Prior knowledge:
A: mainly alpha
Amino acid sequence: MPADAIARGFRRVGNGTMRAIARAGFATRFFLAVLYHSPAAFHRLQLTVREIYFAGVLSLVVIMVSGLFVGMVLGLQGYDALNKYGAGDSLGIFVGLSLVRELGPVVAGLLFASRAGSAVTAEIGLMKTTEQLSAMEMMAVDPLARIVAPRFWGGVISMPLLAALFSVMGVFGAYLVGVRLIGVDSGTFWGNMRAGIEFWPDVTNGIIKSTVFGIAVSLIAVFEGYDANPTAEGVSAATTRTVVGGSLAILALDFVLTVFMFRGLGTV
Amino acid sequence: MNKATIDLWVGIFVTIGIGAIVFLALKVGNLMSLETKPSYRLEASFDNIGGLKLRAPVKAAGVIVGRVESVRLDPKTYEAVVTLRMDDGYQFSKDTIAQILTSGLLGEVYIGLEAGGDPAMLADGQRVAKTQSAVVIEKLISQFLFDKASSGPTPSTGPSAK
């Protein structure tokens, strides 16, 4: 009897592993197929522009308002902490570096996953449920080229722009609180920021990060939609997986990218 | 939503997005600081560079006149050789002294140049002859302690009494 139970436990672990590997393989092949069909997304540019509108333009409000508030909170908290060491003048560099390097790409990515990624998953999942994807295949229209690739590229293009906007709004928010409210000198604020932040590597690293996050979130979103069980429950589960998986992927990728980017910044 | 409206909004979005990147480049980062200006290189060797980092500023009288481009160890003399990328607008005499300094107690480490009186100027690729190494606070403290111990009333307890 206990041997039976042990075997059942192992079988469950084995089954889970096999399914995870198969899913990873399917996701990889799906990614390659999306890349293969990507020229179609740019050949019929209107489809991609439409997706940039849905993923990018409609996310503008939430991204910009969040950026503003994150920046204002950074300004308050940062000034409070820095001023204990008499370094309140360094507020500019503190806010700028944390936004450009980390918070801009990461928080914008998390918001993007929940705002745009979930919508894409739900849309594609519902198309699958209502057999629109099958109908397209019947009409010799490849849904990968017509539906998936434009949504993927719409997300990839929108994400770095949204992250940059988030950072700019954050810097503006910190300026409002730090300079206008608390009274840090405006010249010191901008001067310290510019002295401490380089375009290369700080700003470019932020852009690289947000592009990578855009690729990861968009891929997860279209994949989960395409892979969803064609039921109401399946679509809702896929949407949840997009938000959870996308957010975790962003945080994990952020750590890995940061480790690689900081290697070059040592003494030598 | 018709095509023209979508095009308009996407155009606005992409424009302000690229504008944000340009803002980050110009206003937040300092893309236009030294990369575009013509520059020349100087070398200086130090016994100890302390916490000097790449891209640390090179200052003369407090004005930034260049940046540290690379740091390497000379395998023969075991000295640190620092390459400085200097702004072309500033020339320094041959007897300039290069020092490794710290702004404030915990501030950034930078290289300070003190111009001399030699009429001949340092040219591209030349070496600053007179240098002064970083002050390592741990060494200062240990020196101070050893001095105390050796000059104290009970020399037998001092670590460097003999």
